[in-house]
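Something for you to look into today, if you have time. Could you write out one complete protein record for me, on any chain you like? The space below this message is yours for that.
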Amino acid sequence: MEQEKIIYGNVKLSQLAHFAVELCGKDALIQKGFVTESELNDAYKEKGSYLKFRCTDKNSLFQKIYQFFSEIEKEFEIPLHKTERKKSLDGKYFEEVELSDFQQFYSHIIWSFIVQICGTRPFESPQNNLSKKIIYDCLLKQPTSYFIEYIALVSSTTFDEVITEFAKVHNLKYEQIYNEVAENINDNESDSLLNVRKALQKCRKENTNPTWKIFHPFLKAVHKRDKRFSFILLNLYFYSNFKNAIKWLSFKKTDLQKLESFCKNHQKNDTENIIQDAINFTNESVDMQNLKGITEKTLYFDKLLNKNCRENLRIFQSNMNELRNELPHSFSFWENWFCAKDYVYKYFDSGNLEHLENAVKWYGLAFENGKYFMGKSSGQFIHEAIIVSVYLDMKKNPTKARTRLQKTSDNNSDTKTPLDQTTKNFYDFGLTFDLLLNDMNDAYNLYYHCFQNFWNCFSPESECAKNIQNEDLFRDSGIETTNTPENEKVLKSRETLLKISDAKINNILPTSHNVAYTPISNAIIQGYFDIVELYLDKSKYPSLDLNIPNTNNCYPIHEIATQYLRGNEQKKTKPLVLKILERTDKKVLFTQTNRQKISSLETVIQSLDLDLNKRFLEKMFGAEKIPNDFIISADEVSPLYFALMIKYLFNNPVEYAEKINIGNINYKNLFDPGLSESEKEKFHDSDISSAIKNFKNLENAVPKEILNKRKEEIKKKTDEIVALYIERTLDVDGFISYSMRDPIANNQGCTALLYACEMDDVEICKSLISAGANLRQQIGKTTELPLPNGNMLFLPNNFIHRAIYFKAWNRLEWFLKNNKNLATEYMHRKEENMTWLVYFLLMQQNEIMQNPQKCLATQNNINRFLPLFLEAGASLKEETVFGSAERILSGR
């Protein structure tokens, strides 16, 4: 292997690609159609189409190889074993899958090295120690001796031995085997038999694998007679490839021989001894003092990177000479990164964009020379580099950046990303390693929130920096700082739109904003409804096409519906909505905006106009009902589920905002500043806090009589809307929402009925059940109570559980009183050694512990529900893992 392929303390992504491809066989992957030559070349060079997909994406090279294994498993009926494998690059999350023997082998190695490159890897360590230790950990430190036995057996077998034994067991001559293999070759070559004979004789003599072109038909021939031999051959094929491929992981041939020798010596030992010996085996070459030093340096950089400030920069600069000697391999990365920060601070003091250009250059140097030394700081570095690079692009070339953004938003454009090439280099790497939340939405966010992202990343300290910040954020708000009076701006804008000819009525107008509009869209968003009426006149504008979106993929029908929703001259805007709806293609109504993923139906639901909702549904679905797979909004929910969300938000805005942590937030679609889930969550929570404050101020400012009357009107309208969508939905249980912030969900689902349950909405529960909702439905299990032995309690995610957990007392009372047959069924069924009465009492105990002042109210609640539980058949004396209900009530 070439010397430059070996880097201290790291394995390159391209090395992983080489390893993975050679493991399966390049010709096998290409012949099976899983990858192309072009994709493999991109993978080896770490660029192009290879970087379009995350490591964990189904279209990534590594996942395509899993698919390759899966196809082999099906074709040759390979036995599968249940196992856990990592699901995230930080190694925190696992998933249970069924894999074949060798796929488990491959999975452990690949995942560990992906995590090593861009996850929790330490900052630095000698190459051989680190690589050997990780490989040994993958192969030897398993809960059973499976891998050790596997390596011992396969490494002791030769290709010739398998063929010889196969011929002997089935009383076959080698010529018969060659003939059967040749029959499976479909290339219509007249000399297939000759090619097979030559290839297999050579492989037997040299003890090597044949090419996939020969090996695959050979395997089919063997499998037809004897599955056991086909399993042996497949393992031999993959392990032989593994021995050749492992060089790409900087693993020496002598180390592999040592590993095989170790496995052979321990093949028949008991598991505990093997694991202990394996630990000793892997530790023998690890310098513990060196590892201790790595930990210290990790803490040092954690502290420095906790906040972007001059003080941390000074600390690093004062320690540079010492760090240079202690970190001979990765110091240049840290030096370049902090040099980039230094130039950002210089920009703060001067406002000179040349300093910012130098900063981006140093981020680039740090990235190119040290991207495999970032370790767990990879996310922070990539985010910072992207934010500064986009900020510079927008400051230096605002028109070009905005033009790219507009072209990207246009579905007919060939421009696929708004990013300039410098930012794209950082961005592609971030996507590959799951360091960014979402492809396109993040790319939009970079520009729409570039100023806010920049000033969230760096805090202004000098007066100059504060002035730059104020100017940036003022511009970001969309306010034009010109001396032109507002009435003159309006006159000029109207004059421009009135001069539009029929020949140009469908053109996208030039603009200095991030989104560009057609004339009718421009007139709608500015509220020039008389001009909209003019454009709709077919005698004056016969060429008008209402199916052309602005560059945010928002159509005129959506824009006029938004104006109606906002209450802008509704007597004028509703007729316009109906006229535009009539001339809009049906397919347009199924689209969503690019940035905030808003659909026109979502906007119409929020308007609470029953007539408009009926007309939209009629145009979209005719007499058919809404199917289960149709979703709207950034939260990716069904129209019925969204209607319920609007009902609870509009009826009780303060309560709903306070309960937003159980909402259906999909962070990848959330159009807030930030490039990660945690960053978006931070700003979303801030917005919610402001919303709660505004809701409370509004309630206090409006007289109670008016407020109550308004609430009655809203309740009537929202009930009508929800009733409409219950009636028009094909299956009210068909859509399951998977909330990302539900504290009890734990990735379990929620139907419309369960949602109404947790919001304590008895009437909607009744309506949903009348429409076919299943009161017995259970969607997975959830955990929230620690057991005495330290484990967690698993309970069904169902109706009664949600009622108790969310304190939906009206709903619980209705359930126990009006559904006695079902309630009795639950009372007589233990769930994980737990009864629902005991669970109810435990939740009341927790309430008292968390809020002692609610002791009396909680006791009243127990007095209210205890008779109902008992009437339904609950037992006071039945024992559970927490004791009986009687014991809990007595305080014992």
Notes: Residues 785 and 793 are 5 Å apart (CA to CA). Residues 1-8, 741-746 have pLDDT under 50 and may be disordered. The beta strands are 81-86, 94-99, 781-786, 792-796. The radius of gyration is 33 Å.
